[in-house]
UniProtKB/TrEMBL annotation:
Taxonomic lineage of the native organism: Eukaryota, Metazoa, Ecdysozoa, Nematoda, Chromadorea
Cofactor(s) listed in the protein's UniProt record: Mg(2+)
Keywords: Magnesium, Metal-binding, Nucleotidyltransferase, Transferase, tRNA processing
GO biological process, one term: tRNA 3'-terminal CCA addition
GO cellular component, one term: mitochondrion
Superkingdom, natural source: Eukaryota
InterPro entries: Bact_CCA-adding_enz_type3_sf
SUPFAM superfamilies: Poly A polymerase C-terminal region-like
Protein name per its UniProtKB record: Uncharacterized protein
GO molecular function, one term: nucleotidyltransferase activity
Length: 98
């Protein structure tokens, strides 16, 4: 069923979740318990521990793409996320700098 959800819709909803209340717990559950990373365009083994540290240090005051980057290990993983979610072209320069 999740395969039929549009890439744009995935990004719209994920960016709300990833900086929202209790995002560290929500994302950990989505990845470790529900195994949703492949549907979200995330790496096979996202770094949920680093995500939790970044989230707790900044209390959700970071941009959603910064939080996505904290789940990734390489620029290639960020680029795959970008392609999967059809991330806004105006922000494309961010992945090129990594």
């Amino acid at each position: 069923m999740l395969q039929s959800v549009s890439a744009e819709r995935i990004w719209t909803e994920l960016k709300r979740l990833i900086i929202g209340r209790m995002a560290d717990h929500v994302i950990r559950c989505m990845i470790e318990e529900c195994k949703l990373q492949k549907y979200l365009g995330l790496p096979e083994s996202p770094n949920v521990n680093r995500f939790a540290v970044v989230f707790s240090r900044h209390e959700g005051n970071l941009e959603p793409m910064t939080m996505i980057a904290s789940l990734c290990e390489t620029p290639e993983e960020i680029e795959r996320f970008h392609k999967k979610t059809k991330w806004d072209k105006q922000l494309d320069h961010v992945t090129k700098k990594c």
